[in-house]
Design brief:
1% strand, 13 helices, globular, mainly alpha, single chain, 337 residues, 2 strands, two-stranded antiparallel sheet
Length: 337
């Protein structure tokens, strides 16, 4: 572990010598461009143009490398990655590598490359940065992207009709964009102390309810709960009152949606059946596909709609264990801090 991290540290310091001459503003624009590219590719892949797993990985890897190199600041001391983070990443990578070889899936081999080589590089690059400034850039870019989504839905296609927001055929795609906008809005509101971001939060929440994405609605409730605890702890009464007002408006919007849209169906949308079939079929090396077979839901192959189970079904139990341990460890770190 130390050899790999030391090697990456030397590479980053070498590259930074040539990047120091680039103005900070230009670097910020490059970071925004790379991040926007990942968002656009994700949206295109959802409903417009189906990229292969390999192509998606190549684009995301390139964008992540660009961001990591642009944010890195030359440092004389190497900050070691915690073993609780890097060891699960190696477990995921090794499991994905075996699955890729067994199923002849280049995309899985690239997935292994991400966890074995790329993410340790990125973590080292991000260890010595101005995190507040970096997250402000990411959050503002996310809100910019959300504004584009809103404008598209207003001028090209009503949000109440399918496809959602002009080009989403899956409500969860729109729900994910809305969740990112809400999180970014809260972050910028807490750091910049500007209540204008509450407007973006309100619009994103209303769009979430119109999307009909139950997963997004659950996440919105969790975000609100965390934010309310934060505001109570630091005695921010004005912001808390504004937040409660937004919640009331959002709740009324949800009632309107439920009254005028009777086709929401069961809350799980068959996911319980899909997950049950998925769990029963998880094996050591995975199945080499993103679709679960032999499901009782519609009696046809279905997407799993669960990131953790997707890893286990596609690439096997080894990456599943590594990913679960990684998420649990990171959660415990953030709770303790």
């Amino acid at each position: 572990l130390k050899v790999q991290q030391s090697f990456y540290f030397k590479i980053l310091n070498y590259i930074s010598q040539y990047l120091n001459e680039i103005p900070i503003k230009i670097k910020e624009i490059i970071i925004q461009g790379a991040y926007l590219t990942t968002l656009v590719v994700y949206i295109l892949n959802c409903d417009i143009y189906q990229f292969t797993f390999k192509t998606r990985n190549i684009i995301y890897i390139c964008c992540l490398l660009v961001i990591a190199i642009c944010v890195y600041k030359k440092n004389d001391t190497l900050i070691q990655i915690r073993k609780g983070i890097v060891i699960p990443m190696y477990i995921i990578g090794i499991g994905a590598l075996f699955a890729g070889i067994i199923h002849s899936m280049l995309g899985y081999i690239m997935y292994a490359f991400v966890y074995l080589l790329l993410l340790p590089f990125v973590i080292i690059a991000l260890a010595n940065i101005d995190k507040k400034k970096f997250f402000r850039i990411i959050s503002k870019t996310t809100l910019l992207f959300f504004i584009i989504i809103v404008l598209c839905s207003v001028f090209f296609k009503p949000i109440t009709d399918e496809p959602y927001a002009s080009f989403f055929y899956d409500p969860n795609s729109l729900g994910l964009v809305c969740i990112c906008a809400v999180i970014s809005g809260f972050y910028l509101m807490n750091t910049d102390k500007k209540y204008i971001y509450l407007v973006f939060i309100a619009i994103a929440i209303i769009y979430t309810f119109f999307s009909g994405s139950r997963t997004a609605q659950i996440v919105i409730c969790l975000i609100f709960a965390i934010q309310i605890i934060f505001l109570l702890k630091y005695n921010k009464k004005k912001t808390l009152i504004a937040l409660i007002a937004i919640a009331a408006v959002a709740f009324l919007t949800l009632l309107v949606v439920l009254i005028y849209n009777k086709s929401l169906g069961g809350f799980s949308s068959g996911r319980i059946y899909i997950w049950d079939s998925t769990i029963k079929q998880i094996n050591i090396w995975g199945h080499g596909t993103e679709l679960v077979n032999h499901t009782n839901y519609f009696a046809r192959p279905m997407y799993i709609h669960n990131g953790v189970l997707q890893i286990g079904y596609s690439m096997g139990i080894i990456p599943l264990i590594g990913f679960s341990v990684l998420i649990l460890y990171l959660s415990l770190i953030h709770i303790s801090e």
